[in-house]
Amino acid sequence: MNLLIVDDEIFSIQGILDSVDWTKVKFDKVLTANNFSQAMNIFLQEKIDILLCDIEMPFGNGIQLVGWVKEHDPNVECIFLTCHGEFTFATSAIKLQCFDYILKPVPTDVLEDTLLRAQKKIEQEKKNQNYLEYGKMYVNQMKENSSEEQSEDMVSRIKAYVKEHIAEALNVELLARLVNLSPDYLTKVFKKESQMTLNDYIIQQRMFLAKELLMTSNMSVNRVSDTIGYSNYSYFSKAFKKYYGISPREMQQKSKKKR
């Protein structure tokens, strides 16, 4: 993953290079430019994932640069780092779908956090894109050969996705989009291969993980609830008791007595 920093003030760029902990915020390349033209040349020669740029620059401003970048690669995450807090600049940033707009002087930890969040978003979008590509490939294969093995493979991928994203909002519609299938068709195939509905599988995996965390960790019940994707503790407690016959707190207390 590559970062391009664009600012006409050399000392501003050097300040970023010196202050950011690059062992924490890891990039394959951190490139710099001092104006619009330099930035364009670098962009045409290198694969840029995140653009961090000032607004006021000679020979073209940051708003124009981001507009040009988005035309050439809409997937680049752009962050404005500027002294300008005017509403018009913020509005332009929103229209260009910039990842963030932060004002100078910005604390190093805030900048690091912003870059890390941008990296995480890019990684998540790449994962989702991989699932979409798999879905398209799966549909094409199904047209040629609707074998039982392909259905099993698709269900295995869905199960893997559920386990990897257990703390996120999961539903049939989202998972169906990831594999490019209709919700009804995915539900039908999943139930045939797993002998349970997709929603029941999601609940099962959340309950399994909740039980494991309650019995083996020192996490609070509220934190366990958040970790497995339940933002509402009361709803989690009812779901857990329905599944296991006892409340999460009771299971945690029993587990502590056995340790």
Average pLDDT level: 86
Q: How many whole angstroms does the radius of gyration measure?
A: 24 Å
The CATH architecture of the largest domain can be named as 3-Layer(aba) Sandwich
Distance between the termini: 45 Å
Shape: globular
What string gives the helices and strands in order? EHEHEHEHEHHHHHHHH
Structural class: alpha/beta
Strand neighbour order, sheet with most strands: 2-1-3-4-5
Secondary structure: helix percent: 55-70%
Number of strands: 5
Largest sheet: 5 strands, parallel
Q: Unreliable segments (pLDDT under 50, ≥5 consecutive)?
A: none
Q: What is the CATH superfamily label of the largest domain? A: Response regulator
Q: In terms of quaternary structure, what is this?
A: single chain
Query: How many H/I helical runs?
Result: 12
Tally of individual domains: 3
SS strand fraction: 5-15%
Per the CATH scheme, the topology name of the largest domain is Rossmann fold
CATH class of the largest domain: Alpha Beta
InterPro entries: CheY-like_superfamily (IPR011006), Homeodomain-like_sf (IPR009057), HTH_AraC (IPR018060), HTH_AraC-typ_CS (IPR018062), Sig_transdc_resp-reg_receiver (IPR001789), Tscrpt_reg_AraC-type_HTH (IPR020449)
GO molecular function: DNA-binding transcription factor activity; sequence-specific DNA binding
Domain HTH araC/xylS-type: 156-254
Protein name: Stage 0 sporulation protein A homolog
